[in-house]
Specification:
Blueprint (H helix, E strand, L loop, with lengths): L10 E5 L5 H9 L4 E5 L2 H10 L4 E8 L3 E2 L1 H10 L2 E9 L3 E4 L10 E4 L1 H5 L2 H6 L3 E4 L3 H11 L4 E5 L1 H7 L2 E4 L9 E8 L12 E9 L5 H11 L4 E7 L9 E7 L5 H12 L1 E11 L6
Parallel strand pairs: 1-2, 1-3, 7-8, 7-9
Antiparallel strand pairs: 3-4, 3-11, 5-11, 6-9, 6-10, 12-14, 12-15, 13-14
Length: about 280
Amino acid sequence: MSDDPIDPRTAIAFQGTFGAFSHLACRESATDFNPLPCENFEVAFDAVKSGQAARGMIAIENTLAGRVADVHHLMPRSNLYIVGEHFQKVHMHLLSPPGTKLGEIKEVHSHVHALAQCRDYLKKHNIRPVVHVDTAGACEMVAEMADPSVAAIGSILACEIYGLDVISDEVADHNNNFTRFVVLSRERIVPHPDDGDAITSFMFEVRSVPAALYKALGGFATNGINITKLESYIEPGSFSQAQFYADIEGHPENRGVQFAMEELRFFSKRLEILGTYPKSHLRF
């Protein structure tokens, strides 16, 4: 990768190093931006907040591993807005130094979730899994070691960047592995209600009254608004009232959404709209 400084106006921050699946998501869905690797999610959020990057590509959930917990706690305090979404196919590859044969590999390094998703393959070939902080970092380390007994599990992009060989691209136990990313911006960018299907994301905390959640969400049912995601979470170090993250199909200027939101506000003590953005064609 180039060592030239990245123009903040065209930078998109992601968690991980070059070759991570987050980097692949940037390359496939944010072609007008230059990827900016960040050590962790908090650094990626700060890069967007500080103006070091114009956008952030943030993993929010995975079909096999579930939600990315850190994001739910960072999002409400970030003052950033969701302006897009992307669904990235996660295709696991067993990667090794050039010239390596499968039978030579004794151990494989990767992120804990990647290793868990390839458990059957590793057991079948008697390869010992070793947890690494991320997939791309494991690939970089394996390339530097140049030891045929040590391999990594990562993306095809990491293979290209670090000059590794693909031993197998059929290492995952399941094929339905997708990660959903949200694109963050300092400015709220809302599509026109007539521009096509939209997703609206928000967080809320209900009032402490009986059946508050049932009543708060009743307006979505009566107005025919589809809730595609609803998750509860508790702030760290607290046993206070649960908070909720939700995605709905619809634009805030749609009449049904307006009525549903009015009812939600009545039964909530806090409601924060995180963004309205075009629905990805890959969603279904």
